[in-house]
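Dissemination and training. As part of the outreach component of the grant, students in the summer workshop were shown how a complex can be specified as a set of sequence lines and then modelled as a single object. The example used during the hands-on session is reproduced here so that future cohorts can follow it. Participants entered these lines:
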Amino acid sequence: MNILVCVKRVPATGGRIVLTADGSAIDVRFLGFTVSPHEECAVEEAVRIVEARGGSSTVLTLGPAVAEEQLRDAMAIGIERAILLETDGRDWDPVATASAIVAAVRAQEAVAAPFDLILFGNESADSGGFQVGIRVAAALGRPIVTGVKALQLGEGRIVARREGAGGGWESFEIPLPAVVSVKEGINLPRYPSIPGRLRAKKKEIERSTPAWQPGGLEKIVLRLPKEEVTAAEVIGRGPDAAAAVVDLLDRIGVLDR
Amino acid sequence: MSAPIFALVTIAAGVPERTSLETLTVARRLAAETGGPLEAVLVAAAADARSTAAALAGWGVATAIVIEHDTLTLDHPDGWAAAVAQVIAARGPAAVVGSGTERGNDLLARVAARLSLPMAANVVSVAAGDRYRLVRQRWAGSLLEECWLDAPVRLLTVAPNAVVVGEPDGTAAPAQERLAVTLGPADLAVHVTSREAPERGRISLAEAKVVIGGGRGVGSTEGFGDLEELAGLVGGAVGGSRVVTSAGWRPHADQIGQTGLRIAPDLYIACGISGAIQHIVGCKAAKLILAINTDDEAPIMSVADYAVIGDLHAIVPAISAEIRRRSAGG
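and obtained this result:
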């Protein structure tokens, strides 16, 4: 199996989002960076499939030069090759992002074996567009299933399972080559080992610089939603608070059964 | 006459889904602003769609469009995308508004990809114009983006739970129009091949009136025993933060947060949870939040209504004991 995983560098926001003074971006001066959680699982899934079935794995990102960090993180847990589509820091909308990825896939497949499987996260943690994987699949004429929480590999086919809209599960059996967007929960990603990190540090990264293109979606400004920030009323300290808590449960009627 | 505004309306058990009413609310406002008629494209098997078009009385829908095809079902995501694309080509709407649910975003993104149109997901408000000015959610709603959507047909989905739906008014039931679509084998290739029913008998996190959530402070898989005990006493369900599911202390299906479930119980008891944004977006729809935490300055305190300060492993069993004591004492 020849697998490509697409990831996006995003800030690790933690407890509170702070914006730059002009509202054009998140203030990242004090933040670390990561990939979207669904994508961490996509990377892990690719590594596991290649461990089990043989083949090769490649990670790709469209982002600034510093997104090399996220590519090396993926290589540290076992992805073999990395491709950086380097941007100048401008925002790329989903249409432009997908078209750059499609061009990169075509260029790769023109000189090497085609990708049997292309994995995405279901949506990016930051912009949450819910569409890049679908656009890439459509342009390549390959089937896609989104929101996948389990993958089963067969001969030339895969079964992708996801939660049903009304609970339960639904499965799709699709032929390869295919595109799948996964959700967190499909696996529990491993932590990179020290030798893994050292190996990843020395690896080559294939770079190219696609030309920025305008898309139909253009950010004007960011703002924080108006939240009611309340100070919690402290109703007690330690186990002595139990009576006050049960009074509260009683008052809101959760003990009436 | 101005071009129509489409609302993609999903019908389940004979009535529009709640999120489809949010979609209709946004689409109706847009229709009023642009002067175009509001048309509902029914996303349902044709037989269900024909019988439920009447259920759209009161939502200002001029025409309900029933898509007719012999083999198309809701199990065909590309089939629906192809069908909606054909309806767009036939009727030339100015905008198509869908639901920002998992399925809603999937469907409209497939439509967008087919028609090479941009799409904006999880929108909370729209101003029409040559270009549409939108406000949409980022970071699962913890950040808002104002943006331009510039396209001949504007495709957008409405963020769930972000729009207030009014009561239906006196507007008549829509006229019904049937539209036969032509689908090729490629359109029907991706389809649900098997289905498993939901597990019965367990109080689901999504439905529970009381949810008890555990975070890093719970410390281990075994540590959740205290939370399970309390949940049993109040008829609640137990969930956890991402830290907890990433550590393998709970299955991922129990995760409350941006990459897990969004819950809206009457009461959420957050035990040993500091309150990262990832978690807050999953629990902030709770009517009341009680935080139990050793740190009285944890971020969870700014969204909680009540707090108990201290070690959850001392406090939670004491609460369970107190409930038992009172119920025994009558």
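Chain A touches chain B through 86 residues (CB under 8 Å). Students were then asked to discuss how this feature might be tested experimentally.
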